[in-house]
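user: can you give me the structure for this one chain? tokens are fine.
assistant: on it. calling the predictor now.
[tool input]
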Amino acid sequence: MPNETETDLIYDWNSIEKVAKISPKRRIQFLDETLRDGIQSPSVVDPSIDDKIKLTELANSLGIDTSDIGLPGAGKRAVEDVTTIAEHIRDAKLKIKASCAARTHLGDVQAVVDISQKVGIEIEILCFIGSSPIRAYAEEWDLAKMMKLSADAIDLGRKYNLPVAYVTEDTTRSRPEVLTKLFSNAVEHGAQRLIVCDTVGHVTPDGIRNLLKFTRNVLDGLGRPDVGIDWHGHNDRGLGVVNSIFAIEYGADRIHGTALGIGERVGNAALDQILLNLKLLGELPDHDLSKLVLWCKTASAATRVPIHPQYPLAGSDAFRTATGVHAAAIIKAEKKGDAWLADRIYSGVPAGTFGKEQEIEVGHYSGESNVIYWLKKRGFEPTKDLVAAIYNEAKRGNRVLSDDEIMAVVNRK
């Protein structure tokens, strides 16, 4: 860090009027949906059980509170995988808690109960039913049927003393009078959390503010301020991450998401990006996110979903530059012997905080300083002739040179 203070070198418009943290007086929790909602994407491969265990361990290391480890009502394989993951959480004494999705069907709930009793750990039941008028119309449900299905499912989970979170699918397009009755019914039957869902990625921050204020008012009216509120967002409008941050500010105390934002259609809110942003906002002082990139890469390999080169943090281009002026600024910062400065002069995300580093490449937009830096970084003497040869090779092309291409020039010299 230079003699100047951080605020001397970076003026932060993000915090100029913020007088308190995003989540005053509340500890924000996180629920990882990678192994349930995430693998509903038609483009993913359902990970092997070994990969599911690796992902659970990495989520645990990131301080994620809960993992939705599957929907055992889906069939034999789901039951086997959920059981194995639950056993691993128990045997490895992981801090992360297990949850399972269940439709408001007694069979789905009983499947979770059976695994919980067999393994001997508490498994939260995430009991879901569609709540929007468009969904009720398509399913030919009436409110009385929806309330009975919900009550019976919650009652069964609570009979075995398992925590139940009540999920209203498509909450962001549901009528307030219907939500009031569904929420009240769920809480009266013992639900300890209400999961507010933007199932089709419809809502904007204004909608979140209105909906979460309404939900809190319903709970206060029931005399149940202790009931938690979860936010479950999707990314259809590209608002998945920012909506999740607004949801925290507007009252949600547990946020759902998936690694890399994988999920149906264009995916869920990307939990890795949510964690990244909250860390930079100073909201997660106790979370060690040094394995965040590894979690993303493991999820990518396990589901066969490639990471876009320009994906935040985990993308291969996240901290690469080949542009001459950008590279020159980084090089000048490094010459000052200041890693802090070099990591921030052309990056809003400090690479070193998350186990990565700035990279300077050589391409058609590069200057000679890029070439000199590349050679020195790899232990080569940047002679005038060698620098000129590589520089001219880059200028003849229309892209960044690969390491092999540069080495071919080095070897010719």
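assistant: here you go. The chain has two domains: 24-303, 320-412. The longest strand covers residues 123-130.
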